[in-house]
Write a structure and sequence with these properties.
This protein is mainly alpha-helical. It has a single domain (about 15-130), classed as Metalloproteases ("zincins"), catalytic domain (Zincin-like), CATH 3.30.2010. Helices cover about 55% and strands about 10% of the residues. The protein is built from 5 helices and 3 strands; from the N terminus they run ααβββααα. It has a 3-stranded mixed sheet with strand order 1-3-2, with helices on one face. α2 (about 20-45) packs across α3 (about 85-95) and α3 runs antiparallel to α4. The chain starts with a helix and ends in a 9-residue tail after the last helix.
């Protein structure tokens, strides 16, 4: 009885990945890792921050995230983005190592290197649904 109630509270389960989706992820995961590590090396020198582990994941709705332990997660679909959007995502997550929120102080850190961060953020938001669906188009940057 308890397990049934617990499942009901969580809501419907997420759709599992198809074989072709898993293959697509496997094909591009290491390329994404290489790109992310290159950009992290560059931007950590600029910001003077450290981070924990780096994970490349198949996420449906996020481009990246930063844990309270300092671990960074990035969506493997980052390989399909233009370099300026990749840099914005990496800088955004690194700035969470300085300010672990989206306060004015956080956005001031992002603006140090990306004063046009609002435009880049909008470009990412417009791209997200098409990338999740597997359609890669050029962003309106």
């Amino acid at each position: 009885m308890w397990k049934i109630l617990r499942r009901r509270r969580r809501g419907p389960r997420a759709r599992s990945r198809t074989k072709s989706e898993r293959a697509h992820y496997a094909l591009h995961k290491e390329s994404a890792r290489t790109i992310v590590h290159e950009r992290l090396e560059y931007w950590t020198a600029h910001y003077g921050v450290t981070y924990g582990k780096v994970f490349i994941r198949d996420q449906r709705s996020r481009w990246g995230s930063c844990s309270s332990k300092g671990n960074l997660n990035f969506n493997y679909r980052i390989v399909f983005l233009p370099p300026e959007l990749v840099d914005y995502i990496v800088v955004h997550e690194l700035c969470h190592r300085i300010e672990f929120n989206h306060s004015v102080a956080f956005w001031d850190q992002v603006a140090r290197t990306h004063p046009n961060h609002a435009i880049l953020r909008r470009a990412l938001r417009s791209l997200s649904p098409s990338l999740v669906a597997g359609k890669v188009e050029s962003p309106p940057v």
